[in-house]
Amino acid sequence: MTRHNTRDIYPATGTEMTCKSWLTEAALRMLMNNLHPDVAENPHELVVYGGIGRAARTWEDFDRICAALRDLEADETLLVQSGKPVGIFRTHADAPRVLIANSNLVPHWATWAHFHELDRKGLMMYGQMTAGSWIYIGTQGIVQGTYETFAEAGRQHYGGSLRGRWILTAGLGGMGGAQPLAAVMAGACCLAVECDETRADFRIRTRYCDAKAHTLDEALALIEGWTKAGEAKSVALIGNAAEVFPEIYRRMQAGEALPNGRPDIVTDQTSAHDPLNGYLPKGWSVAEWQAKRESEPAAVERAARASMRDHVAAMVGFWNAGVPTLDYGNNIRQVAKEEGLETAFAFPGFVPAYIRPLFCRGIGPFRWAALSGDPEDIYKTDAAMKKLFPENAHLHNWLDMARERIAFQGLPARICWIGLGDRHRAGLMLNEMVRSGELKAPVVIGRDHLDSGSVASPNRETEAMKDGSDAVSDWPLLNAMLNVAGGATWVSLHHGGGVGMGFSQHSGVVIVADGTDEAARRLERVLWNDPATGVMRHADAGYDSARDCAVAHGLRLPGIL
Amino acid sequence: MTRHNTRDIYPATGTEMTCKSWLTEAALRMLMNNLHPDVAENPHELVVYGGIGRAARTWEDFDRICAALRDLEADETLLVQSGKPVGIFRTHADAPRVLIANSNLVPHWATWAHFHELDRKGLMMYGQMTAGSWIYIGTQGIVQGTYETFAEAGRQHYGGSLRGRWILTAGLGGMGGAQPLAAVMAGACCLAVECDETRADFRIRTRYCDAKAHTLDEALALIEGWTKAGEAKSVALIGNAAEVFPEIYRRMQAGEALPNGRPDIVTDQTSAHDPLNGYLPKGWSVAEWQAKRESEPAAVERAARASMRDHVAAMVGFWNAGVPTLDYGNNIRQVAKEEGLETAFAFPGFVPAYIRPLFCRGIGPFRWAALSGDPEDIYKTDAAMKKLFPENAHLHNWLDMARERIAFQGLPARICWIGLGDRHRAGLMLNEMVRSGELKAPVVIGRDHLDSGSVASPNRETEAMKDGSDAVSDWPLLNAMLNVAGGATWVSLHHGGGVGMGFSQHSGVVIVADGTDEAARRLERVLWNDPATGVMRHADAGYDSARDCAVAHGLRLPGIL
Ligand SMILES: NC(=O)c1ccc[n+]([C@@H]2O[C@H](COP(=O)([O-])OP(=O)(O)OC[C@H]3O[C@@H](n4cnc5c(N)ncnc54)[C@H](O)[C@@H]3O)[C@@H](O)[C@H]2O)c1
Ligand SMILES: NC(=O)c1ccc[n+]([C@@H]2O[C@H](COP(=O)([O-])OP(=O)(O)OC[C@H]3O[C@@H](n4cnc5c(N)ncnc54)[C@H](O)[C@@H]3O)[C@@H](O)[C@H]2O)c1
């Protein structure tokens, strides 16, 4: 069982296929793209993002998946169980080519401890969300979500402008690395604490972060200058959030000098969902941490959990002092609560605070990637999307900023948050562009599992649902089965993404636009049905805007409407 | 929200459809059949079997499901969320007509307490296995499984003959009611403790049990006479297992008079998986129990759990004294263990003890029902099955005994345990019989969720797997998605069946043989793939017989073989 390997993986580009159809070629390229050196956080260990979110269980499994995809016929389906290819079965042309189930555990055993035991035995892999379902597109994927969240916070708390404001956060990993750029796009400054300097350097190299500091005073001086000047810029502070957050809180309470006297928004994106691998304990060096994960896992976990408690205690302090504070979906409040911090859930998660209204209309992180590998293909789709949605000024702004500020990683890709009624139109348009030859090669279309109808995660996406149905996971299972029935190209069911083992169940979907009539029929069904299940789920929970959306789009929801 | 209703539900029979195709007509008839007065344990409360296993969430939902099925087009799919119809979406002719997700909860919240909270709010329904997935066929469904288990125990412990032996058990509900008949078919006597006299009377009325007793001495006297005479007969003792089991154990230890000096096999099928609704506490009357479930649920649960501990303690006593003792899949050992009985898992579950070798070859509870409603249709299929499998003497015996001893309940149906390579042949044959007009109407084909590839349940079906992968639930999720992809008629994903909330995840599949070519193609795929996933799962776990079976059938299992 090999998890370490020094091979560099690059997906094929261009119009020559090594598989028997574009559907399987797409799966192969996207799997490889997830491990592209510019995309994955730690590709030699098969880690794509989010702690230990992997694309395949072992390198042997990676090779076997590639071989199976190259060989797969148009009426066959490959089954992948926690990153290992386990079977090839006969289905039909309109069925998915790949079905994936990652990290799923029977609830009573759904803990990190049991997962790690199975993982050590070679029986499991953590799939996160888009890592094990082969539709991660690098940090860009998270930029818009983060941007929308910060912008909405600005609207709710600062009259629509974040000029002269600063955001305190931590974690510059695969997802968290989007924060400085998203903050700047939203008009704010950002101080991001990151313990691993290589992560910070990666963000600076890819233009997601502007500056680096080694001391808190240095970082605060930069923020002071930028906020005064009304400039939106970001700094990575090399340090430990469990030390820096409490220190800033102390200074604020003590009335010591701080830009604006306090941070204007506080959040966090360390990998707190994974106490063994994702959170540096206070007082430890990164090297010590990495070594002890192997030799003393229990000690690492204990120390990390205790540090998270201190970290969250500071966040609760900011919240109580009136600073808009949000959990950004890493389950850190849950850990702090388990560590005895009764008030851990004082501040809200980002979904109920800012994102749910979008989910009610099926709006979420729609994305596509150009299998040609040619950035021009994406630029053409940018322009076409603007033409398709001429009235959507917000979308136009986003596409302009994205083109200007976001460096592609791996296969060129674009993300934009659109909802029911728009997604299938976008999909059909992309298919048309492939058919006409305007694009050089087919396009894959997918989304995050963090979406409207695809996830049950009571500490994050389904926190505080109106009817109390936060923990009901029938919905993502129905979503996955419906996407299989609709003819998506690959469909996945995962457990534990985002918030860790025990805390979420979710499904992913990817569909290929290869320019054929058959693809058009599938795209129309899948890209309608998929966001429609989100509207259905929120309508069932009693959200008026979801019911209105369902009525406006003529959804047939027998027990609901 | 109405759960009580005095309506009696009977499925339509004959060849006239009220739906637009046989696929949807089949779903409608089988839903109704689940609530047929001769089939369901408590149809007026929508309860089919297994504690509170329901076919629909409320009577309003039942009516809405029926209306939706009557209206459903050949390219549409109905979504059912915990017994409530929530959406109708466009798919295609080869996709399932119904997709069902019942009782699924995010692991950290997957407890009876949380389930009951949601259930009271009208947000959930317990689907058990075949109750909420509309393929329960009455007690017959369980007879063969129980028969196979007792017969195998006879082979392992008593040289192949149970003549003159007696089995001690409890619970004569929907599933447990099969025990006396299965014991008798296997050649043994049976003493079954049942607290609810109406349940015992029901079994006697339907010829599953031979006699009734009100005192232990009376029951033992009957057993004494039958075992002496070498007659295989059964008696229902009206009493509480938590009192009777310890008393028999006491007599055995004390050397007091007992047939054979001890029971020859001990097991149990009370609904221990559901401590609130399924197990009568010691010293309580049934009436008191029923009343207090509403008024003092916590007290009921506490008392039931304490009684189960005593019950299991007696079973451990029998086991330690050398009596073959088995958990029959109701999770009673788990409860006893939680109640502090350290030795609760001393005796094995029935799957690792007797059933797993069958699962390794994809063999499990295959079943079919005649939508015509005509018993002759089933008798014709009995004969045809014998002809199709001329070499399978075991199957022939079973079919003969079943015909003789099993009274049909609701739509006439037959079950027989067959595996990979045989199921699709049986399905194609049934389809041919429909096509040729030999059968009056189409046939539905399905199976229990307790099957080879469809369940993760570490205290039951996947107890003590060779590689320790008991809790990995990727497998049933892949099974469900593959059956959707293959074109089954309805597919379901459930949580908590058999062993209760938190302890299992499993999938169901039903497919209609309507005599068409399209059905034949789907049957061939689905009835091959479905057992093949079971062989795959057991081959992956390292069972040689599963690997041999996979090789023999030419399965393509890239990461496994
Ligand atoms: N809200 C969302 O939309 C969303 C989306 C995806 C992921 N997430 C969650 O956000 C978290 C981060 O995801 P990621 O992909 O960036 O993970 P990652 O593992 O790639 O990055 C985490 C980063 O945090 C740093 N870190 C760890 N402990 C630290 C500490 N004590 N102080 C400072 N820095 C520390 C690590 O060095 C690493 O760079 C995860 O929990 C993930 O589940 C949220
Ligand atoms: N092993 C298998 O193949 C298999 C299959 C299905 C179900 N089961 C499990 O078997 C159990 C029984 O299933 P069912 O459908 O018959 O359930 P059920 O609820 O219909 O029947 C349970 C019966 O037990 C009786 N009972 C309860 N407490 C009792 C006590 N203290 N003493 C005596 N009798 C008592 C009840 O009156 C009832 O008749 C469930 O836990 C179920 O999950 C096992």
UniProtKB/TrEMBL annotation, chains A, B:
Residues at the catalytic site: C416
Domain Urocanase Rossmann-like: start-end pairs: 138-354
Cofactor annotation comment: Binds 1 NAD(+) per subunit.
Catalytic activity annotation: 4-imidazolone-5-propanoate = trans-urocanate + H2O
Main enzyme class: lyase
Keyword Cell division: no
Enzyme Commission designation: 4.2.1.49
Subcellular location(s) per record: Cytoplasm
Residues of the Urocanase C-terminal domain: 357-550
NAD found in the keyword field: yes
Biological process according to GO: L-histidine catabolic process to glutamate and formamide; L-histidine catabolic process to glutamate and formate
One GO CC annotation: cytoplasm
Cofactor requirement: NAD(+)
One Pfam match: Urocanase
Family: Belongs to the urocanase family.
PANTHER family registered for this protein in UniProt: UROCANATE HYDRATASE
Protein name as annotated: Urocanate hydratase
Gene that this sequence comes from: hutU
